Amino acid sequence: xxxxxxxxxxxxxxxxxxxxxxxxxxxxxxxxxxxxxxxxxxxxxxxxxxxxxxxxxxxxxxxxxxxxxxxxxxxxxxxxxxxxxxxxxxxxxxxxxxxxxxxxxxxxxxxxxxxxxxxxxxxxxxxxxxxxxxxxxxxxxxxxxxxxxxxxxxxxxxxxxxxxxxxxxxxxxxxxxxxxxxxxxxxxxxxxxxxxxxxxxxxxxxxxxxxxxxxxxxxxxxxxxxxxxxxxxxxxxxxxxxxxxxxxxxxxxxxxxxxxxxxxxxxxxxxxxxxxxxxxxxxxxxxxxxxxxxxxxxxxxxxxxxxxxxxxxxxxxxxxxxxxxxxxxxxxxxxxxxxxxxxxxxxxxxxxxxxxxxxxxxxxxxxxxxxxxxxxxxxxxxxxxxxxxxxxxx
Amino acid sequence: xxxxxxxxxxxxxxxxxxxxxxxxxxxxxxxxxxxxxxxxxxxxxxxxxxxxxxxxxxxxxxxxxxxxxxxxxxxxxxxxxxxxxxxxxxxxxxxxxxxxxxxxxxxxxxxxxxxxxxxxxxxxxxxxxxxxxxxxxxxxxxxxxxxxxxxxxxxxxxxxxxxxxxxxxxxxxxxxxxxxxxxxxxxxxxxxxxxxxxxxxxxxxxxxxxxxxxxxxxxxxxxxxxxxxxxxxxxxxxxxxxxxxxxxxxxxxxxxxxxxxxxxxxxxxxxxxxxxxxxxxxxxxxxxxxxxxxxxxxxxxxxxxxxxxxxxxxxxxxxxxxxxxxxxxxxxxxxxxxxxxxxxxxxxxxxxxxxxxxxxxxxxxxxxxxxxxxxxxxxxxxxxxxxxxxxxxxxxxxxxxxxxxxxxxxxxxxxxxxxxxxxxxxxxxxxxxxxxxxxxxxxxxxxxxxxxxxxxxxxxx
Lengths: 394, 461
Fold this sequence. Notes:
heterodimer, A: 394 residues, Peroxisomal Thiolase, Chain A, domain 1, two-stranded antiparallel sheet, globular, B: 461 residues, alpha+beta, 2 domains, 5-stranded antiparallel beta sheet, 21 strands, 24% helix
């Protein structure tokens, strides 16, 4: 038994990403066409060159037909999949394995979500018929449990923690202000963030990611073929995934200051990629900042900060765009919203830009390794995805 | 012979001040937005069945059944974990059915079947009317069984049935109506006196032998006639709880009786009369077992646990009288019949599982142990009466509810086990990690015409 990984065997050779936001004038199919067309163009290919597709959407459509009809595909295999908020990353992970296996030469991973048609606040989704006993907590409520637990465990007073969380939102909005594809392209002051109306627990509106529509796509091939399509491919160093047994929902030992699933998936990813010191070796990361305390805890679970220290690192600007280890340089879920199926690929799109030196005003100097992280579920009961990518082999 | 062998009562946490209605003094109890006659019946029943022997019959009386068709009593039975071979009866249409149920329970007990008798009501009236201010919400439960177990023996009874338009309501009407008070008083008064007299005669005692008298009815003047006719002294008359509870429909006579039993002594003789569409009366004699078999919660304990300042518009919203802006969230889905049936021990009985290999508790019940991964080595375990505490919590302003914010908590149970659930009957400002809680059976919501019952936690009362 082993998670061997496919380091350096698969490359991303083209990507596309729609602007994220309230696309009142576009349906999910339109967004798919936009993202796919961008990706084809980016790799200099036509749909005939692409052998198979993986479509990630949580609930904006069903089956591969959603994509094959939208793109009028020529009887190609399309896998539609869902893995909660990690859906987009999961499409890419499975597409990568198909290429690595030799089954196909060039494949597309594409994700989409159309959230703004529901008329509701926050995320909604239909559940299978149930006995009606499931917890009714909303997503912000479940993630808000992290904040007081973290404060208590590490002796941070709640007023200080509130400032730390606000700074995370401030940082991500500041980065998003530099990104033409972001839903929110404005800086937001710390005062405004702290004064925003309460949603759940310590979380105000500005501690929560927005609600938006969007789509993103990636074309993948075996590494040795990458230069057929682009001068500057990026290489997959690690792909890891963990679905937890929901221990935190059963066991009194779980204290809401960590995601064991993130620890498991990042540990596995570092092993695949040969990373021994993530705090030093990972140049930048796109992480799942669905709510500000999530980003705080992720920094510790992924080894970017020692336990109990992430709040200081955040305050000292370690994860700022100009800092030693930028986190969410594109603005994160905070600035992009979270069209579920698309988010994981949107994160990868920033890696694509940064590792190729195309990130414009957000460009990080000479990045080597980037990490993307996607989380689905709630503290105590979630799935976690981690990828590591780089711009050179070895 | 037969008797009451155990009892319990329940009053909801919220009180509406009559002053807020411009309707005089005192307060009325108000079932919360997540309560109904079934959930309150469960709460009263829990105290009554604790330590009672095997229950063979359940008799449920209410004029506010959550379902017009579907056995409401079956939900109560499932929540109380009563045996599958149970006989059930459901009585309604008149507030006299609460005491009628006690008489039916006495008959069942005399026939050798131990019965749980529960009456519960949510009483609403048209805004501004006397029923709104004078009504109350409550539940009372009694176990009837053999003489040898009795805390109070049935020693006399009498009944009368009268065709009269006194209180009435069409199935389609939300609010009951009542004919002129003087008509009811003068017509029903003599009938009540006759029933009381016959009941005492059947017990072979006189009015002066009575330690306490419970007089309940749709028409206070009709029952006042009884006190006058029997020349009862003021100290014989039980507090009718009209100032602190309000008349709680079919539960009311039982509720006042429960409070009498809370303070009764061996040998006390009691008369309970309920006058509505005729009258029922029962005479009881308290035995020496009462002192050892009182419920965990006295009526006074419920009376003392309250939020006194419920705003009137909350009350109107909760009862569906006042339309309001719903939260911008999807309306809850109705629960589905097969999953509810599969999970009935969990959903209603709050029965989780414990791993026999390593002892880990699981809520809801699991087949595979979260600690040791043993498969199918679980035994059922009821968590409903276990103490629990707040492991952590949050206030959810986004969730769909009639009473924002939802107080959502991770609840840890004594002896192991954890559940994510809602807190109810709680001031959000008072919630702290470590707060002691207890579980309470509630109606979470009604989705597409289906009531969704499950358990919540509340601060220990």
